[in-house]
Amino acid sequence: MAKKTPEINSSSTADIAFLLLCYFLMTTTMGQDSGLQRRLPPMPDENAKVEDQKVNRRNIIVVKINSQDRLMAANEPMDVTLLKDKVKEFLTNVNNDPNMSEKTMKDIEGFGQWPVSKGVISLQNDRGTSYQAYIAVQNELVKAINELRDDFALSQFGKKYSQLDEDKQKIAREAVPQNISEAEPKDTKK
């Protein structure tokens, strides 16, 4: 008669595997997605005519990031920490400098006449630019716009932009528009 080989009781093996799976799912942290939170403009109507919009060279501040993450704004090399102040100075143009953005009087619904900057921030980067440098520059540009909106809201309504109701926030957005134009990344190594 053949001798029986002993078997391992595998009924508890599945239970142990399940408990280990649960343990690792509960204790493991998932990586945070990083990116930009942006609200894109609505899609244009397919039937609408496309008009060429000419922008005066004076109204454009060019911000470039190269593949070594070096920053140039208005043809001046600078550190990313100085970018916000440079953009604010360009957009406000307090002294009416002919090399900075011009302003035009705009009738804002629910508010009245206000001098609005025609300034456009043109962001250009190299294909080799690091994601961290790109995000840092984007953050400084948006921070500059947000501070200008806060300044407007405080001077006109006595509150910061984030504390205003939706109608007053709309007025602040029209008084301080966020005009950031991003060019397609270029490969400068060619």
Key phrases:
190 residues; alpha/beta; 5-stranded mixed beta sheet; two-stranded antiparallel ribbon; elongated
Q: How would you characterize the overall build of this protein?
A:
- This protein has 190 residues and is an alpha/beta fold.
- It has a domain at 57-182.
- The chain contains four helices and seven strands.
- The protein has a five-stranded mixed β-sheet, covered by helices on one side. Strands 4-5 form a two-stranded antiparallel sheet.
- A hairpin with a 5-residue loop joins strand 1 and strand 2.
- The longest helix is centred in the C-terminal third of the chain and has 27 residues, at 131-157.
The number of helical elements comes to 4
Encode the helix/strand succession as letters: HEEEHEEEHHE
Distance between the first and last residues' Cα: 82 Å
| Poorly predicted sequence stretches spanning 5 or more consecutive residues | none
Note the beta-strand portion: 15-25%
The helix fraction, in percent, is 25-40%
Mean pLDDT: 83
How many strands in all? 7
Write down the overall geometry. Answer: elongated
Which assembly state applies to the chains in this document? single chain
Largest sheet: 5 strands, mixed
Structural class: alpha/beta
The spatial strand order of the largest sheet comes to 3-2-1-6-7
Radius of gyration: 27 Å
